Every structure is written in structure tokens, then in C-alpha cells.
């Protein structure tokens, strides 16, 4: 039986968590491959969140898994700056794709996108990547927990489940500052009416300008978790939001007796642009210890670095322009050949074995174990 017949024989909820199913929608755009993408439209979601809808001229239909992200690299003040944004669109509608971006105070890329990207604009982007998808952990009973713009991967999964008519039991809990900050509020309400096994729950920290808001106020607490979702221990949990939110959520679940082996969270802090930069610098960097010498083959720059620094952060400190995005070894943006010397690399799926065999490394998660010559 061929792959297509195999997929057709799967139930919708099985297809939801099947990697071949998502690959069958169109051409796969390899992660780390840069392409030109064109903006088709811009949609205002809330007062500080916009959705940007794109197409890629090289791929009439794009294949990805719901929950994966794209790395966009606009040129800002003459410099290419990269950031990861989850695809908020569903791969079940593969002819266009979208990212949904919250304007972050001081955030270089989010502000540039909000202020400059219009229908008809183009920019560079690297192919879909990421392991925060249903394929990672097939399950029928799901608990989605999100805060702020962390709603995007879970929205992509919910849209995909709806389009597939997948027999999934989803509780979608989203936390926002005020009711008017709830992203996709109307669409989630509509999906809830359409899908018998989808339940949404919005927690707001304050009322804002909606004094008649009837939903729960404050944050998700152990009591609320037990009261609102009494079967939470039977569910596979997917969480996305600011780091503080994810840390608190994980602790809350762990303390409530949830099996954290069934807990999944996005591995980087979406939209927290300043946090991404901070992640590049490990604790303890700068303390006196042995150093290695690194030479950048193209620019001729030479600098020294300690073994606890990543090659990416040391090269940036030395003034090298290195494309990077997730800083977590996921997106593949910082993939570079190490021409001489050795590094210890702990990646999270952003590089393939055949690329490693060719001498490529992800500099954001590589630390030197000898002097180096790098292809920069
Ligand atoms: Fe994403 Fe290095 S910056 S893998």
C-alpha cells in the first residue's frame, strides 16, 4: 500500500498526529533554507497583535506540522535580523500561511513588522521547523494552556483538528491581561460552537474596558485547575507563553500530581525578543578559565572565548554578523561550517546527521573544545 492510501486509511485523530499526513499536503520547505516570502494581507487581531498572511513563490502549497514556526529575517537599518514566529495558520489550508505577532515594547522585529510590513511587501524567511507539534505526542485527550501570543501554536493545532474533524477532546485555556487582549477570541468561540469536544476557558488578570466580563479573573490556580478540568491528569498538556508563565504552569501541574512526562512546552520564548538575546549568554560566562582562539575565515577576525560560551555569543560579541533566531538549536538559522577544531554541540533537532557529517554545526548550542576556524 502506498503512502497516500496508508494515510487515507487512518482515522482523522490519527492523521492529526501523523508526520506523513502533514508531509502529503505539498512541498516540504527544509528548515534553515531561506526563501523570499510575500505578504498578502495584514489582519488586526487586537490593539497590539496583527496576523501577517504570506505566500512563498517557490511553493504553491506548503507542508508543515501544526505548531511549527518560521524564522523571518527582515532587513532593519541595513542589518538582517532574525526571529522565530509560530505559524498560526493550519497546514490543512496549505496555499497560504500566517504568523501572528504581538508588538513588544523595544522589540526590533515585532515593531518593524507592525510598522512596515504591508500587503505586497516581501522578506526573507527560513523554512518551518520545531518539534512542538501533535506528532511529538499523539493523544486523544488534550489540554492546551497558553498566555499572550503563546496562543499561536495551539491555535494552529485547534484549527487543524477542526478542519480534519478529528475526534479529539480538547480543553483550551488561554490567559490574557484583559478581555480585549484575548487573541482569536471570536474564532475560538465559533470553533467551540462547531466542535462538540472543544471547550475554551479564558482567564483575565483584569477587566480592562469590559466591566461586564463574566469569565474567571486572575491566573489559573490549583483550585481552578481541579474545579474546571477535573480530568486534567488524563490529558496530554501543551503549553506556550512567556517563560515565567510556562515555569509557573509546569510547577502548578507538577504539584497537583500531573505526570510531567506528558507535559510539552514550546522551547523558546516566542516574541520575547530581548530574552532570546539573553539566552545566548550562559551563566558564568566571563569568569577566569582556559580560553580558546577562534578565527573567522571569511572576515579574518580573531578572538578568544571560554569553553562555557557558545560560539554564537562569542562571535557576536566580537562583532561578527551571524544569522540566528531561536538560540536553542531548533531553527537551524545559525548553521555554519566549523572548518578546523572541535565543538560540543547540544542541539534540539535543528540540524541533520548528514549536515553534521559535512562539518556543519549550530553555533548557538556549540561550545569549543579546541581552537577553531569557522566559516564566517
Ligand atoms: Fe536557531 Fe541556532 S539560532 S538553531
Task: Identify the CATH architecture of the largest domain.
Answer: 3-Layer(aba) Sandwich
Backbone structural class: alpha/beta
Strands of the widest sheet, in order across it, are: 8-5-10-2-3-9
CATH homologous superfamily of the largest domain - what is it? Nucleotide-binding domain of ferredoxin-NADP reductase (FNR) module
Annotation, overall tally of beta strands:
22
- N-to-C CA distance: 47 Å
Helix fraction bin: 10-25%
How much strand content do the residues show? 25-35%
Q: What would you report as the Rg, rounded to the nearest angstrom?
A: 21 Å
Structure description:
Helices cover 23% and strands 29% of the residues. By secondary structure, the protein is an alpha/beta fold. The protein folds into 3 domains: 3-129, Translation factors (Elongation Factor Tu (Ef-tu), domain 3), CATH 2.40.30; 134-266, 3-Layer(aba) Sandwich (Rossmann fold); 272-374, Ubiquitin-like (UB roll) (Roll). The strands form 6 sheets. A 6-stranded antiparallel β-sheet has the order 8-5-10-2-3-9, covered by helices on one side. Strands 13-12-11-14-15 form a 5-stranded parallel β-sheet, sandwiched between helices. Helix 8 (243-255) links the parallel strand 14 (236-240) and strand 15 (263-265). The longest helix has 14 residues, at 151-164. The radius of gyration is 21 Å and the shape is globular. Residues 269-288 have low confidence and may be disordered. The protein binds FE2/S2 (inorganic) cluster. Residues 324-327, 329-334, 350, 362, 364 line the site of FE2/S2 (inorganic) cluster.
Amino acid at each position: 500500500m502506498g503512502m497516500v492510501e496508508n494515510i487515507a486509511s487512518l482515522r482523522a485523530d490519527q492523521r492529526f498526529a501523523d508526520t506523513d499526513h502533514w508531509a502529503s499536503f505539498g512541498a516540504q520547505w527544509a528548515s534553515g533554507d531561506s526563501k523570499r516570502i510575500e505578504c498578502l494581507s495584514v489582519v488586526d487581531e487586537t490593539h497590539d497583535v496583527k496576523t501577517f498572511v504570506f505566500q512563498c513563490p517557490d511553493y504553491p502549497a506548503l507542508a508543515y506540522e501544526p505548531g511549527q514556526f518560521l524564522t523571518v529575517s527582515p532587513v532593519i537599518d541595513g542589518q538582517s535580523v532574525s526571529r522565530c514566529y509560530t505559524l498560526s495558520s493550519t497546514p490543512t489550508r496549505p496555499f497560504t500561511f500566517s504568523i501572528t505577532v504581538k508588538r513588544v515594547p523595544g522589540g526590533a522585529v515585532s515593531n518593524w513588522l507592525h510598522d512596515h510590513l504591508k500587503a505586497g511587501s516581501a522578506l526573507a524567511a527560513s523554512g518551518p521547523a520545531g518539534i512542538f507539534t501533535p506528532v511529538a505526542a499523539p493523544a486523544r485527550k488534550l489540554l492546551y494552556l497558553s498566555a499572550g501570543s503563546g496562543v499561536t501554536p495551539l491555535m494552529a493545532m485547534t484549527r487543524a483538528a477542526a478542519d480534519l474533524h478529528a475526534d479529539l477532546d480538547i480543553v483550551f485555556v488561554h490567559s490574557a491581561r484583559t478581555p480585549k487582549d484575548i487573541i482569536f477570541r471570536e474564532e475560538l468561540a465559533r470553533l467551540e460552537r462547531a466542535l462538540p469536544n472543544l471547550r475554551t476557558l479564558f482567564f483575565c488578570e483584569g477587566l480592562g474596558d469590559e466591566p461586564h466580563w463574566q469569565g474567571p479573573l486572575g491566573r489559573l490556580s490549583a483550585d481552578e485547575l481541579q474545579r474546571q478540568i477535573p480530568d486534567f491528569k488524563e490529558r496530554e498538556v501543551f503549553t506556550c507563553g512567556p517563560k515565567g508563565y510556562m515555569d509557573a504552569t509546569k510547577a502548578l501541574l507538577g504539584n497537583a500530581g500531573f505526570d510531567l512526562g506528558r507535559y510539552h512546552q514550546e522551547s523558546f520564548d516566542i516574541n520575547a525578543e530581548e530574552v532570546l538575546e539573553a539566552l545566548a549568554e550562559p551563566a558564568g560566562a566571563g569568569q577566569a578559565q582556559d580560553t580558546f582562539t577562534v578565527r573567522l575565515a571569511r572576515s579574518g577576525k580573531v578572538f578568544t572565548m571560554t569553553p562555557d560560551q557558545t560560539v554564537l555569543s562569542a562571535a557576536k560579541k566580537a562583532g561578527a554578523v551571524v544569522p540566528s533566531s531561536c538560540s536553542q538549536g531548533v531553527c537551524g538559522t545559525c548553521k555554519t561550517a566549523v572548518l578546523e577544531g572541535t565543538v560540543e554541540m547540544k542541539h534540539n533537532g535543528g540540524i541533520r546527521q548528514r549536515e553534521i557529517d559535512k562539518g556543519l554545526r549550530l553555533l548557538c548550542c556549540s561550545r569549543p573544545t579546541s581552537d577553531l576556524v569557522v566559516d564566517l
